[in-house]
Amino acid sequence: MVENGTRICGYVLLLMRRNSRIARIYSLAVAPEYRQISMARTLLACTESVAMASGRNRIRLEVREDNTAALRLYTSVGYRPFDRIASYYEAAPPQVDRTAAIRMEKPL
């Protein structure tokens, strides 16, 4: 988590299973006013360092297929798509989302 005073500017939630060498970024978010200063890149770099220090050799994430900004970011720092999951995201009723997710992975 990155804070500016009492304000949370961004965070990453990293999952690591005890008997797995693969880490998973479950969630990453950056407040809109901090998106143009490479905060997401910094958060990713720190998260990858934590995963490596914990003995992980790969890191994975899922991203909405229509989130072009996030796809560009992840690709630019070495993540590569390896799978697509149809209808991954669901909206609360009565909305229907059903957007697919792209699964991405980066060797550490």
From TrEMBL:
Keywords, sorted A to Z: Acyltransferase, Ribonucleoprotein, Ribosomal protein, Transferase
Enzyme class: transferase
UniProt cross-references to Pfam families, sorted A to Z: Acetyltransf_1
GO cellular component term of the entry, any: ribosome
Matches recorded under SUPFAM superfamilies: Acyl-CoA N-acyltransferases (Nat)
Enzyme Commission code: 2.3.1.-
Domain N-acetyltransferase positions: 1-108
GO molecular function: acyltransferase activity, transferring groups other than amino-acyl groups
Official protein name in the record: SSU ribosomal protein S18P alanine acetyltransferase
Organism: mine drainage metagenome
